[in-house]
């Protein structure tokens, strides 16, 4: 649609009667006007009603659904747990969960089996987000029969949002509420345990939950409900997005040999040539943040993956007669009241006017070139403005740690869709841009 319309700064998709008409924002400056603080909206334009369709997954009191001072209060309460300096102290926890992930990869490498990377990455990030936010072992990587009730219920709840339910669709809202209530009961029990243990423990937890309860003197039903819904939100948003990031990273490294070589060279310079997980773990635990800061090229790889394959999206909405207008590149002011506003990252972050004629190509080096000026507003995988993603630092630290441990240890090869095309001798066919040709192009959905 975007190309067919001549690459406009925005365009309208009329979804009535199913939903409000949707304005797709394709220009980074227009997107910035939607997401930034303004006189009209102090904390940026309000979230769209469409977000409420996930209220059973996140909880009705979720920070994602909150507005104005309610949102500000929640953000202030949970910010300390997601601060960079605090998360650096939780790297031992991230490393511990990564060890089991590597053991599973070792098994597949030794047997030469094909396996779905999605399941492994998602289980890993589930374990990490559970440990970081609640100081709990969700056992997501131990197989369905050994997973915690929280993981099983989350997956069961998530399955109700997928297609293919046939005549049972009318019962889905009720089913979601029942599962959500069960999930909430398990999370609330954990909150109560942590709250009661904080005053008596000689080694208090440093989880996001624990820090959020520091100034809580009484665990009222209101506080319990509100805290439960934030934990639901963090579990929901924190496992799937990072898993997607990891999968795309391993895929692009596997089909872009010159980038893989450069990542491996950087890791050799930082950690030495010993790529065994025990050695990497010891180095990270000893040197901490200094190690991550030196992973400059690897960070550029992550940034480029997030540019090409943004793992999440959000929508805003301005009520009719509110007066929300944006100025377009041609100087025209456009009123967007009454429209669902979608900052389309997959278009914005591939804009040739910003990223050049190679905007669709995987080029981590673009983030390291001193002469290249890419507007900050043209890279927005975690969105921007006051309501940017609270967990973006965690996602970045997770990815760096996992890539440090796994990149050099394994030779990755995609099978099925997106697999590498080979010549008659079985060697991969390399294109002019240094990437291997593939049987079919993969894309984000």
Short précis:
The protein has helices at residues 28-35, 55-58, 68-78, 84-88, 91-111, 117-134, 149-159, 172-198, 208-212, 221-255, 257-271, 277-287, 289-294, 296-308, 345-348, 352-355, 392-406; strands at 10-13, 22-25, 315-317, 325-327, 333-335, 340-343. The protein has 445 residues and is mainly alpha-helical.
Which terms summarize this structure?
globular; two-stranded antiparallel sheet; Cytochrome p450; four-stranded mixed sheet; 48% helix; mainly alpha; 445 residues; 5% strand
Report what the structure shows.
The protein folds into 2 domains: 10-406, Cytochrome p450 (Orthogonal Bundle), CATH 1.10.630.10; 416-445, no CATH class. Helix 5 packs antiparallel against helix 6 (117-134). The chain is mainly α and 445 residues long. It has 17 helices and 6 strands. It is globular. It comes from Penicillium solitum. One of its GO terms (molecular function) is monooxygenase activity. Its cofactor is heme. Heme binds at residue 389.
Chain-wise SSE layout:
Blueprint: E1 10-13, E2 22-25, H1 28-35, H2 55-58, H3 68-78, H4 84-88, H5 91-111, H6 117-134, H7 149-159, H8 172-198, H9 208-212, H10 221-255, H11 257-271, H12 277-287, H13 289-294, H14 296-308, E3 315-317, E4 325-327, E5 333-335, E6 340-343, H15 345-348, H16 352-355, H17 392-406
Parallel strand pairs: 2-6
Antiparallel strand pairs: 1-2, 3-6, 4-5
CATH superfamily of the largest domain: Cytochrome P450
Principal-axes geometry comes out as globular
Largest sheet: 4 strands, mixed
Number of strands: 6
Helix count from the secondary structure assignment: 17
What CATH architecture label of the largest domain applies? Answer: Orthogonal Bundle
Which H/E pattern describes the elements? EEHHHHHHHHHHHHHHEEEEHHH
Structural class: mainly alpha
Determine the CATH topology of the largest domain: Cytochrome p450
């Amino acid at each position: 649609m975007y190309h067919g319309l001549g690459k406009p700064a925005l365009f309208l998709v009329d979804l009535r009667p199913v939903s409000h008409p949707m304005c797709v924002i394709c220009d980074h400056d227009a997107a910035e006007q939607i997401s930034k603080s303004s006189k009209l909206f102090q904390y940026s334009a309000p979230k769209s009603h469409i977000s409420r369709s996930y209220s059973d997954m996140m909880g009705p009191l979720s920070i994602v659904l909150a507005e104005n001072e309610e949102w500000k209060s929640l953000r202030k309460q949970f910010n300390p747990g997601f601060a960079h300096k605090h998360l650096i102290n939780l790297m031992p926890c991230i490393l511990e969960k990564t060890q089991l992930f590597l053991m599973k990869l070792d098994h597949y490498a030794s047997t030469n089996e094909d396996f779905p990377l999605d399941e492994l990455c998602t289980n890993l990030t589930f374990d990490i987000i559970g440990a970081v936010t609640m100081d709990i072992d969700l056992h997501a990587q131990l197989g369905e029969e050994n997973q915690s009730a929280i993981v099983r219920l989350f997956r069961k709840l998530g399955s109700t949002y997928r297609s293919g339910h046939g005549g049972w669709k009318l019962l889905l809202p009720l089913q979601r509420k029942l599962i959500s209530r069960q999930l909430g009961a398990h999370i609330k029990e954990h909150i109560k345990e942590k709250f009661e243990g904080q005053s008596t423990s000689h080694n208090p937890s440093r989880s996001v939950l624990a820090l959020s309860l520091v100034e809580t003197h009484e665990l009222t039903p209101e506080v319990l409900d509100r805290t439960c819904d934030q934990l639901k939100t963090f579990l929901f948003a924190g496992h799937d997005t990072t898993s997607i990031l990891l999968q795309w990273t391993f895929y692009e490294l596997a089909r872009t040999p010159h980038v893989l070589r450069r990542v491996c060279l950087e890791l050799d310079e930082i950690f030495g040539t010993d790529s065994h997980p025990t050695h990497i773990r010891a180095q990270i635990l000893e040197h901490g943040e200094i190690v991550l800061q030196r992973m400059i090229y690897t960070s550029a790889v992550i940034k480029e993956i997030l540019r090409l394959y943004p793992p999440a999206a959000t929508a805003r909405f301005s009520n009719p007669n509110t007066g929300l207008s944006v100025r377009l590149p041609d100087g025209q002011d456009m009123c967007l009241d009454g429209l669902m506003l979608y900052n389309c990252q997959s278009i914005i972050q591939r804009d040739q006017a910003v990223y050049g004629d190679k905007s669709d190509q995987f080029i981590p080096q673009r983030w390291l070139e001193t002469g290249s000026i890419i507007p900050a507003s043209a890279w927005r995988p975690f969105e921007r403005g006051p309501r940017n993603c609270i967990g973006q630092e965690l996602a970045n630290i997770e990815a760096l740690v996992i890539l440090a441990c796994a990149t050099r240890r394994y030779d990755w090869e995609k099978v099925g869709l997106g697999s590498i095309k080979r010549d008659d001798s079985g060697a991969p066919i390399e294109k002019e841009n240094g990437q291997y040709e593939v049987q079919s192009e993969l894309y984000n959905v």
